[in-house]
Amino acid sequence: GAVVSQHPSRVICKSGTSVKIECRSLDFQATTMFWYRQFPKQSLMLMATSNEGSKATYEQGVEKDKFLINHASLTLSTLTVTSAHPEDSSFYICSALLPRGTGSNNEQFFGPGTRLTVL
Amino acid sequence: KQEVTQIPAALSVPEGENLVLNCSFTDSAIYNLQWFRQDPGKGLTSLLLIQSSQREQTSGRLNASLDKSSGRSTLYIAASQPGDSATYLCAVHLNTGFQKLVFGTGTRLLVSP
Predict the structure, then answer these.
(1) Which of A22, A34, A54, A107 qualifies as a FRET site for A5, CA 20 to 30 Å off?
(2) Residue in B with minimal Cα distance to A42
(3) Which of B36, B54, B101 should be substituted to probe chain A, the one whose Cβ sees the most A Cβ atoms within 10 Å?
């Protein structure tokens, strides 16, 4: 159980276009999901916390108008990179938090990641 | 601000060796600590999660310890195999409402046959 999927796994786009990445919890409901960014040979950096039915909470230095997050249902959060530029090229990973009371120890379950390349 | 550091940054060992990866964190007020494995270009695989009240967890050839007071955790890998080659990340769960994770810098492990 506790499987998280991401779509697409890889996307190449032209500079100036917008790209949407989906994160789904397949076998559980997640009121909270997280979006991370990873540059080559670096660790994961938390971008924002996505809460179902409310606005996302962004980390310091992350532009919320640039990275739009929508958590419209208990199993889906989306990250839209608006007007993408080459410097937005990165590996984006989402995670979903098992609800409290499920014996999860507040463990996050991670998706397989999305490789974004902006030309 | 919580900072997580891993030493060494890279490690290359021959198959069969036992090895230790180190993780240190600056703020001992953590909820959990978790070790992950990441293969190149892939997502994260959770290896072990240690609750703040625990001192260690074991899974197969892996053993992780936690010393909250000194801000340290170690991941011990016994009888290493080429399939263990990957990047190992430790992450601490902050004691905040949403249990944010702060990741370490990672250790790239190469086990040669």
Answers:
(1) A54
(2) B105
(3) B101
Angle at A38 between CA A36 and CA A40, to 5 degrees: 175
**Closest Cα partner for A34 from A86, A93, A95?**
A95
Q: Is the dihedral of CA B5, B57, B37, A35 positive or negative?
A: negative
Q: What distance in Å separates the CA atoms of residue A109 and residue A98, rounded to the nearest whole number? A: 8
Whether pLDDT at A117 is above 70: yes
Q: What is the pLDDT of residue A76?
A: 94
Q: Does residue B89 belong to the interface with chain A, where contact is any CB pair within 8 Å?
A: yes
Shortest Cα–Cα distance, B103 to chain A (Å): 6
Please give the residue of chain B at the shortest CA–CA distance from A9: B42
Rounded to whole angstroms, the Cα distance separating B89 from A3 reads 20
pLDDT of residue A4: 93
- How do residues A42-98 score in pLDDT, each as one tens digit? 889 999 999 888 889 999 999 999 999 998 888 999 999 999 999 999 999 999 987
